[in-house]
Amino acid sequence: MKMTIEVDCSPEEARRFLGLPDVSALNDHLVSEMKSRIDANMAMISPDELVKNWMSFGAGAQEQFRKLMEVGMTAATTRK
């Protein structure tokens, strides 16, 4: 015996029927918090800010990065 039941209801009606909590207020709060954090951090990914942050580490960091690239290049050429 095979039985098929089709229920036509909205997500809100299904949530109430199943007794699940209403988390729409929490969801709205989380979305607004994420939006504000994204807006606050958008300035950090601008090219000017990225270069400024990289340069703030000084010549020592640039030298370390150069050495890292050299090691990577020598490792890549020795594998061939």
Quick structural gist:
70% of the residues lie in helices and 0% in strands. The protein has helices spanning 11-18, 24-41, 47-56, 59-78. It has one domain (12-78).
Architecture overview:
The chain has 80 residues and is an all-alpha fold. The chain has one domain (12-78). The protein has helices at 11-18, 24-41, 47-56, 59-78. It starts with 10 loop residues before the first helix and ends with a helix.
Largest sheet data: none
**In what range is the share of β-strand residues?**
under 5%
Q: What is the residue-mean pLDDT, rounded to a whole number? A: 83
Total strands: the figure is 0
- Number of helices, where a helix is a run of at least 4 consecutive DSSP H or I residues: 4
Helix coverage percent:
over 70%
Shape: elongated
C-alpha-based Rg, rounded: 27 Å
Helix-strand string: HHHH
**Low-confidence stretches at least 5 residues in length (pLDDT < 50)?**
none
Tally of separate domains: 1
> What's the N-to-C terminus distance?
66 Å
Class computed from helices, strands and strand pairing: mainly alpha
What's the topology here?
Blueprint: H1 11-18, H2 24-41, H3 47-56, H4 59-78
List keywords for this structure.
elongated, single chain, 70% helix, mainly alpha, 80 residues
